[in-house]
Amino acid sequence: MHSVHALIAVKDLARAKSRLAGAFTPADRERLVLAMLHDSLAAARQVEPIASLTVVTPDSTVAQSAHEFGADVYPEPPADSTDDAQRLNDALSHAAANLRERLGAVDLLALQADLPALRPSELTAAIEAAHEYSRSYIVDHHGTGTSALLLHDPTTALEPKFGAASALRHAETGAHPLAGDWPGLRLDVDTVEDLRLAAKLGLGVATRELLTELGWPDPDSRESSS
Ligand SMILES: Nc1nc2c(ncn2[C@@H]2O[C@H](COP(=O)(O)OP(=O)(O)OP(=O)(O)O)[C@@H](O)[C@H]2O)c(=O)[nH]1
Ligand SMILES: C=C(OP(=O)(O)O)C(=O)O
């Protein structure tokens, strides 16, 4: 069984999921970010090859929740850049380098934190498929983003290229796109439409319970989506 160490990045809660600002109050949006993180971690924890789970974040509330959800925390060093994607990629690179300094040239997985419909079986299959390639990635459901980047090469760095058009940027830097019928693994939630799709697919417990408590989706949005 190949083992892999997983990294999950989450930015400051106050700035997170800005594309959901029209649908949720700031406090509810923060709860939703934590619920989706919880479900992503809960699914990842059931994946046998995942030897450790580390949440990379500058936010103390996220860090506390990550500990409660059974993950390790890598406190993000002060940012060198004001560019969001650059900050995210720098944070992941630092955390990846730190893991390899401590543990040797272990296999790595950078996984999105907003995968509330993720199934452990999908991630297990993806990790198995990734063993064929030195660096590989999973294209998101839009076909343009990346829901996970996997590194199985002791001599190469993770070189994360998350952000706009990251699927293309991962391809351009030599990573291999993994093929597989993994709808939950590909469904990163950034918009209300994504959330509806994830609800149709089947949400994890934390996100489902929160949305039920918030009365979401409201009757109007249900009508407009049918
Ligand atoms: N640790 C860390 N995580 C980040 C940073 N920027 C983004 N992320 C995380 O990376 C993932 C993708 O980020 P984005 O798409 O930029 O932000 P988002 O919060 O998902 O959504 P929007 O605000 O709507 O763009 C999310 O899990 C973010 O929390 C950062 O500077 N540091
Ligand atoms: C950062 C990314 O995701 P999103 O902006 O969709 O959360 C990405 O796909 O690289």
From TrEMBL:
Reactions mediated catalytically: phosphoenolpyruvate + GTP + H(+) = enolpyruvoyl-2-diphospho-5'-guanosine + diphosphate
Pathway: Cofactor biosynthesis; coenzyme F420 biosynthesis
GO MF annotations, alphabetized: GTP binding; phospholactate guanylyltransferase activity
Enzyme Commission (EC) number: 2.7.7.105
Enzyme class label: transferase
Gene3D superfamilies associated with the record: Spore Coat Polysaccharide Biosynthesis Protein SpsA, Chain A
Biological process terms in GO annotation: F420-0 metabolic process
InterPro entries, per the entry: CofC, Nucleotide-diphossugar_trans
Binding site for phosphoenolpyruvate: 146, 163, 166
Keyword annotations from UniProtKB, A to Z: GTP-binding, Nucleotide-binding, Nucleotidyltransferase, Transferase
Pfam families: CofC (PF01983)
Family: Belongs to the CofC family.
Function: Guanylyltransferase that catalyzes the activation of phosphoenolpyruvate (PEP) as enolpyruvoyl-2-diphospho-5'-guanosine, via the condensation of PEP with GTP. It is involved in the biosynthesis of coenzyme F420, a hydride carrier cofactor.
Protein name as catalogued: Phosphoenolpyruvate guanylyltransferase
